[in-house]
Amino acid sequence: MSNSSSLNEFLLRAFADTRELQLLHFSLFLGLYLAALLGNGLIITAIACDHRLHTPMYFFLLNLSIFDLGTISTSVPKSMAISLWNSRAISYSGCAAQVFFLVIFILAEYFLLTIMAYDRFVAICRPLHYGTLMGSRACAKMAAAAWGSGILNAVLHTANTFSLPLCRGNAVEQFYCSLPQLRRLSCSGSYLRESGVTVVSACVVLGCFIFIVLSYVQIFTAVLRIPSEQGRHKAFSTCLPHLAVVSLFVSTLMFAQLSLSISSPAQDLVMAVLYSVVPPIVNPLIYSMRNKELKDALRKLIQWVQCRHQ
Q1: CA dihedral 181, 103, 27, 94 (to 10 degrees)
Q2: pTM for this structure?
Q3: Which of 70, 76, 5, 18 is nearest to 44 (CA)?
């Protein structure tokens, strides 16, 4: 195929060939998807309905849950449909839409995690200025910046990728339309423009990562100076969930990108599941496990729902 304009559809990678394994994959992904919907949906509802959780940290957590829901809802349902209907085809526009929304949600989540690191830094290292630096207007602007940055990157990457001439067929070796796999279908030497956009995005991502690391170096330094053990424990308890989420997100994404050049297609598939499916399921557990305020809000929400049904 000499040009992308001649393509009407792409073929995504299936997890299994036999009908029994296809149904097993469908059932497994359905369970994981419902778990992500339930966990993140409960967190969004609890934060929105409980006025005690209307603080910067929980406002950002609400946005994080939205990004997680967006990520898993963009990739998993189509993969489930492939196994259920035994059809690997996805339309050209559907593939472009999948790339666009995945880039939005994944990069916006990364930018939001950087903002959340700044929130914890101000709360622990600059507590007297927290109300000024993290006011409602400032938080809204930061969240809007995360959304805007994700959308801008999505427009650039999607437009550049789908303007490349494709010479290597239409089989995407992934269970969703991913940028690296689509670039592999392009003609040799035709991806310099997209490489430039990727380098710029990589520099921004690296800058955010350095900012997160430096923020936590100062946070841990400040926490270790707290004289009381109870104060140190309280400070750590507000930071460790975010640090765990950042570590999970960055490590899975990093391993997935490294595996593109050194692993088999089957390993690529596993790594893609790790960074696109696992974080949206695990993040609600991480944040609610040791957070008393959030657990109380979730308990009241569940009790309210039970009373309504009765």
Answers
A1: -70
A2: 0.89
A3: 70
Nearest residue to 79 (alpha-carbon basis) of 71, 87, 67? 87
Q: Cα dist. 197→60, 84, 307 in Å? A: 28, 37, 53
- To which residue do tokens 């956009």 refer? 197
76-106 tens-digit pLDDT: 999 999 888 888 899 999 999 999 999 999 9
What is each CA distance from 186 to 4, 8, 115, 202, in whole angstroms? Answer: 9, 15, 36, 21
The DSSP secondary-structure symbol of 186 reads: B
| DSSP single-letter state for residue 168 | S
Task: Please state at what angle helix 192-224 crosses helix 136-161, rounded to 10 degrees.
Answer: 150
Residue with tokens 């040009």: 3
pLDDT averaged over the chain?
A: 85
Q: What pLDDT score does 139 carry?
A: 95
Check if the beta carbon of residue 170 is closer than 8 Å to that of residue 155.
Answer: no
Listed in sequence order, the DSSP H helices in the chain are 19-49, 56-85, 92-125, 130-133, 136-161, 179-184, 192-224, 229-262, 265-276, 278-289, 292-309
Which two three-digit tokens encode residue 116? 């959340």
Tokens of 162: 């789908």
* CB-side neighbour CA atoms (13 Å) of 34: 6
SS3 90: strand
Q: Which residues, in sequence order, are bridge partners of residue 89?
A: 11
Worst-scoring range by mean pLDDT, 48-62, 161-175, 187-201?
187-201
